[in-house]
Amino acid sequence: MGEIGKIVQAPEDLVAPVNVPAEAYISPDYARAEVDRLWRKVWLQAGRLEDIPEVGDYITFDIVHDSVIIVRASAQEIRAFHNVCPHRGRKLVDVPAGKRNARGTRKNFICGYHGWTFGLDGANTYVEHQEDWQGHLCGGLADLGTVRVDTWGGWIWINLDAEAGPLAEYLNPAAAMLDPYGLENMRPRWRKWVIFECNWKVAMEAFCETYHVSTTHPEFMDFGQFRGWARNQGLHSNIGYDAPKGQEEDSGKLRLGTGEDPRATTAEMQNFTWANANTNTTMTLVSVANRLKDELPEGTPAADVSKYWLQTARAEDEARGVVWAQVDPAHTAQAGTAWQIFPNFQIGHAVNNMLCYQARPYGTDPDKCIFEAAVYELWPEGEAPATEWEYTEPQDWPPVLQQDFANMAAVQQGMKNVGFRGGQPNPYMERSVASLHMNLARFMGTGAPRTY
Ligand code: FES
Ligand SMILES: [Fe+2]
């Protein structure tokens, strides 16, 4: 092993192996410093637009000490405010016990302590005995503090830094790569959250690479090869599968099972995925896969099985008013299967469904996080189910996710071991890990991956 210590300077490729110090995962000082240096500086995915369809609908979003109220102020306008009363600092909207966030509808926000009242535009509309302040409650001093808010992909994004650059710039190039998938048209099928015993980075990194698939999810090895790449994309990163020998990788997440009879293995993989992950596919794809054996002759080449499966499922969905995005195969190959949006959000996209993960710190404890996953798909107009965030104990998550969970707490423990010499992510398959830490170090001023 060569000399460790040089900071990576040319970030865009990160092709060389690096060592990732454990500090970012386990240090209480680092976790406390994240509040000011990271969480109060970056754009954060804070909710979905469909959660606040009508004027007066609101949700809250918490990130460590900070809480934000996001409200539909008018048909066209979403606004965000610091969730704190400017009178004496009461949190204005409480999160009900056991809930991930508050959600409701109001004409205005009334503080429960002394009754100061605020309109949907954040302006104060009522202060009891206002004259006692002798005219000094002016110039916005009695109004709610505003928070930067913008939208992309059907999500609401907030930034606690009033000086931050625009969201569109921040999301580059992820947004442009994901726009063709029409993610804003998808609605959740389920969404779960849990407080977990690991750092938020450990949780996100359990899903940002394909290197773990063969060992952590050995059942999938019956269905094909899951070796995949990871690329650094500025602040963000993405991952995708390598093409099977002699083929272009242009199918993204909607992949065929391999083996002697792809008609059979595709059905097996689809049934397994639906039953054990409950994501990354849809009921339409599963049911068409189950008919491949009846509808295609034995010996149909894999490429034709794939084409028939996807075209038939697309047509059947279209007939019930569910229109998949059209994405050019060359684009699919570049877009891969998932994007890690810096710092704590992952979008696993496809033309007809997506799986998203987010992890946030639980207070400033480096050993705990709030982990959540939401699974989306396309629905006929008006038929999307009403879902809520369901607190779900680890043993009640889909089995494939439990396999990932089994590593997460153990990684957190292992990284504290005096004998741990820092992470050594695979430079090809786990470059997303190096990318995260390289970018984190820009905000944090510490913890950069070290070259050998
Ligand atoms: S703290 Fe809100 S009205 Fe007093
Ligand atoms: Fe996994």
Automatic annotation (TrEMBL):
Pfam families: Rieske (PF00355), Ring_hydroxyl_A (PF00848)
Alphabetic keyword roster: 2Fe-2S, Iron, Iron-sulfur, Metal-binding, Oxidoreductase
Database matches in SUPFAM superfamilies: Bet v1-like, ISP domain
Requisite cofactors: Fe cation
Domain annotation Rieske: ranges: 44-158
PANTHER family xref list: CHOLINE MONOOXYGENASE, CHLOROPLASTIC
Name under which the protein is recorded: Rieske [2Fe-2S] domain-containing protein
Naturally occurring in which organism (per UniProt): Novosphingobium panipatense
